[in-house]
Each structure stands twice: as C-alpha cells, then as structure tokens.
Specification:
- The protein is α/β, with parallel strands linked by helices and 414 residues long.
- The protein has three domains: 2-48, no CATH class; 57-146, 3-Layer(aba) Sandwich (Rossmann fold); 181-345 and 367-405, Dihydrodipicolinate Reductase, domain 2.
- Helix content is 33%, strand content 23%.
- The chain is built from eleven helices and 17 strands.
- The chain has helices at 2-15, 19-29, 65-76, 104-107, 124-136, 156-168, 182-192, 225-244, 347-360, 373-391, 401-405; strands spanning 38-40, 46-48, 57-60, 81-84, 98-100, 114-117, 142-145, 171-174, 197-207, 256-264, 278-287, 290-297, 305-314, 317-324, 331-334, 337-338, 396-398.
- The strands form three sheets. Strands 16-15-14-13-9-12-11-10-17 form a nine-stranded mixed sheet. Strands 5-4-3-6-7-8 form a six-stranded parallel sheet, sandwiched between helices.
- The structure holds nicotinamide-adenine-dinucleotide.
- Nicotinamide-adenine-dinucleotide binds at residues 60-61, 63-67, 84-87, 118-121, 123, 146-147, 175, 177, 220.
Length: 414
Amino acid sequence: MQRDFNAIALIALLETVRADAQAAILRPFEKQFPCSAIRLNGPGLLLMEDDPLPRSLAVAGGWGYIGRHFVDAAVALRIPVYVRDPGPIPTGIDQDRVRVIGTDEEFYGLPADFYHIGLHPRDRGAALGRLADRLLQGDHFMVLNEKPMAAPESPGECMELRRLVERAGMCMLFDFPELFDPMTLRVRAFLRSFNEVRIDEMRMTRSKDREDPANPRNYKIMVPIQHQETVHCLAWVFTCLAETRGGLDGVWDQGVSVEGVSAPYHPPNPQAYPHPVDGRFEGSVRFGNSVVRLLTDFTAKAPRSKRRTVHGVGDGNPFVIEAEYLEGHKFLAIDGKDIGFAQDANVYQAVIRQGWQWYRHPNLAEASLYLTPSFAHRSYLLSAMLWDACHLGGPRSVDSLEAFWNYTPGFTTS
Ligand SMILES: NC(=O)c1ccc[n+]([C@@H]2O[C@H](COP(=O)([O-])OP(=O)(O)OC[C@H]3O[C@@H](n4cnc5c(N)ncnc54)[C@H](O)[C@@H]3O)[C@@H](O)[C@H]2O)c1
C-alpha cells in the first residue's frame, strides 16, 4: 500500500517535469521500488507495470547442469541473461542474448532483478555475502538458491544462512522446481478446497540411471541421495500436508518418525569421490497418521520416473491424486480425471515465472509455504534423518517441531 502511494506521488511529480529530466529523477527512486514497479516507456510516459517476468536474470554457475537449465529457460522466455562461470563457455550459447561476465565484482553488482545461485554449497558463501551487502545498501532483487541448503557434513551452515538472509532482508527462495509448477499449485488448490481434509498415504518415486558412463551428466559429483534427490519429494510432501494442516508448522504437530534402507552409488568416476555416497533410498516417513512411502533410485538401469500418488479424504469423500512430473510425460489426474496439463511444459520456465510472482506479490498468509530458508532447512533436516536411519542403527523420530529443530544430524564422511 505504502509502495503504491509513493509510486502515485512519484508519477505526479514526474508529470510536472520535462521528459529528459525524468530519468534523473527516477534513478534514486528505483532503489525504493522492487525491480520493475516503475518504468519509463517512451518519452515522458511513465507506467506502473505488473511485469509477469523479471527484466533480467543473473546466473552464477550458468554453465553447470542446473545453471544451464536456467540460462536456456530465460533465453526461451526472452529474458536477458548474465552468466558468471569460470568454466569454458559451452557450445550453443547465443552471446547476443547471454552476456558472459568476467569478474565477481561486476557480476554481483549487476542491476539484475533475479539472481540464480546455481553453485555447490561450498561455492555459495562469497556470492551470497556480496548480494547481502547490496541489499543492506538498499538494492532490490530476488535470489533463487539451490538445494541442498548446505553440504550434508555441514548442518550448522543452514542456521548461518538463515541469519544472513534475515539480517539482509533478502528474498531467497529455494529451487525445488516441482513446487513452482502449475500442477502443484493445482494440487494445493484442490487440497484447500475442503472444509475438512486429511492425507492418509503418499507414494513418491524419483528414479533415473545416474550410473550410466555414457551420460556426461553422470560425471557431476553428487551427495548422498537423501540430500540429492529425496529432498525434492520431502519438499512436495511438506507442501501438501501443510495445506491439510493449517500451515507448515502443523506438519510436525503429531511428531515425525522415519525409517529406511539405502544402497551405495557406483559413479562412473569413483576417483572424484572422497567417500562413498548412497545412490538408492527406500523407506517411509510418518507424520502422525499420514504415511509417506519413498523410493529414490539413481542406480544402474533405474527407470526414469517422478511419480507421486496421494490418497486422502476430503469432506468425507475419499480422493486420489496421481501425478507424473517427468518432462515429456507430465500429467495430473484427480480421481482418475486428467486435469489437462501439457506433457512437455518446461519446469525451469515455471520456476522463473512463479518465483517472480511470489517475489512481486508476497501473500503473507501463505508465507510459510514459500520456499524460504526455513522451509529448505526443514527439508535438509529430514533428509539428514533419513540418512541417519539408514546408517546409524535404525528408525529415528522426533515428537514435536521444537525437537525437530534441535535434531543433530549424524552424517560423517568417515
Ligand atoms: N534444484 C534442482 O533440481 C537441482 C538439479 C541439479 C543440481 N542442483 C544443485 O545445484 C548445485 C550445482 O549442481 P550442478 O549439478 O549444476 O553442478 P555443476 O558442477 O554442473 O555446476 C556448477 C558450475 O558452477 C561453476 N562454478 C564453480 N565455482 C564457481 C564460482 N565461484 N562462481 C561461478 N561459477 C562457479 C562451475 O564451473 C560449474 O559450471 C548443487 O548444489 C546441486 O545439488 C539442483
């Protein structure tokens, strides 16, 4: 409201001055308005726009696996992209659309609306520190960070990051792509549509052959599968359960217990791994009366799948939600009826669009469901509990959210 009022006052002021003086007047105000709320459009004309997309995207690690997805998605959306990556520029990059930035200083000082930090946890600290400094000086932009929130062996970094984000007033969302997907928004709306709703069982499968030496992607280093991949399933589960329990904290109301077994990953480049990591996890998580059955499998010959099924009861009637998130095969069906989503919709474009909308129009009533550092920290801790259940002698449980926050992960590299 205050922002709109200021913008109207600014428009009135600008209307009284010559067009060539407007840009100079506008410049200091740009810091007060997130991104593109105000913009000069032709000589002398000012518009307040509700831009559906950011004006530009800055991707740290843009030549990496995930960074490249965002570079390509931004190019497809015709958003100018900046990339900072010390690696060689890959083939197929259109440098008219993608500007390669040579120094960190220039990159983290860009007037970009949207930063994507497509880096491994060990490389993120300096980048986020620079962005925090800018925000403290009054700049505005959003930051999309990657999972896992910290390396599995450094759980303390989660709280450090949360403190940094809070101190800087940073809008940081985490990249759990499926949660930005319109299919998930539809699932959430369905669950919200009941007066009384509960979920009895969820089945979550995420699998692909990540051991095949013929696939170059498989040479990228991965962390234990609980943190690498199961974490995506956990984030989706939190989102659905939160819709049925009056918010995210309600997910922990009846305690949480986990159990599971894992099998090692056999990478095509074992020399790059200082210690073995899990490549297959199968187990379950109980949130009170709701049970979640999980299978994440990156071992040889695992079929490609991102399948999930939800059984529940809404206002006394049983329902079934079935979804597949694998690009090219996507679908969402509720009680057997296909809702009609495109099979090949690109999820990274959805992340840019939806992330930008959440940044521009935050709905405080739903704040706990946005993919904030607190949300990512919960998914990190539950991934850690799953790893512990496999390696430290069996099931793990906590009886409250407070006990969950105090859970000490047992992951060790020895
Ligand atoms: N959200 C998802 O679905 C998803 C998918 C894949 C990976 N990830 C996560 O993204 C992170 C990166 O994974 P990846 O597989 O893309 O890794 P990657 O190794 O393919 O890419 C990392 C890139 O960062 C570059 N880089 C290294 N240091 C840098 C620095 N200081 N500044 C700028 N660039 C730098 C490297 O040259 C490389 O191109 C990991 O945490 C991973 O778990 C998330």
